[in-house]
Amino acid sequence: MAFSHSVRFELDSPDGIAEWAAIIPGDGLVHLGEQKEPYTISMMHQLRCLDILREELVRERDDSEGPSTLSRHCLNYMKQMVMCRGDIELEPFQYPNHKDPIDMEGIYECRDWSAVYTEVEKNQVEFGKWLEQRA
User: Fold this and answer.
1) Is-contact 46 78, C-beta < 8 A?
2) Cβ atoms within 10 A of the Cβ of 79, count?
3) DSSP string computed for the chain
4) What family is this protein classified in (predicted)?
5) What pLDDT, in 10s, does the model give residues 40-85?
6) pTM here?
7) Nearest-CA neighbor of 115 among 27, 26, 25?
C-alpha cells in the first residue's frame, strides 16, 4: 500500500463525517458462542476511537471544559495499541524548518483488512438471523 495524503476522511465536512461513520460496519461488534456474546474486534475499536478523537478535535467547547472521558479512554487505548503493536518500519524524517514537504509516498505491506470487514459483516448478518429466530 502506498501512503499518501488523502482528500477523504476530512475532520468536519459532511462528507468526511459520513466517511468516518461508515468506516465501521454496523456497530463493529461480532457475536460469538451459543449465547452470541458480544465482542469488538480490536481494529474496529481503534477506528471508533480515531473517530471519537476526531470529534473531540472539532468539538466546540468552553475554555473551562476539558476533553471528554471517552476521548481520554481512546487516547490511552490508542497509545497502548501503538506500544503493543508498533510498526518498526523506517520512515523519512525531516526537521520542522526544512522547506520541502515530507515524502509520504512510502510503500508499506499491510494486512488484508478487507478480510476483517468481510468476517465482521458476515457475523452481523448471522447474528441478525439468530435474533429473528429467537423472536
Assistant:
1) yes
2) 10
3) -B----SSS-SSSHHHHHHHHHTSSTTSEEEETTTTEEEE-HHHHHHHHHHHHHHHHH----TT----HHHHHHHHHHHHHHHHH----------TT-SSPP----B-----HHHHHHHHHHHHHHHHHHHHHH-
4) Belongs to the ustYa family.
5) 999 999 999 999 999 999 998 888 888 999 999 999 999 999 999 9
6) 0.82
7) 25
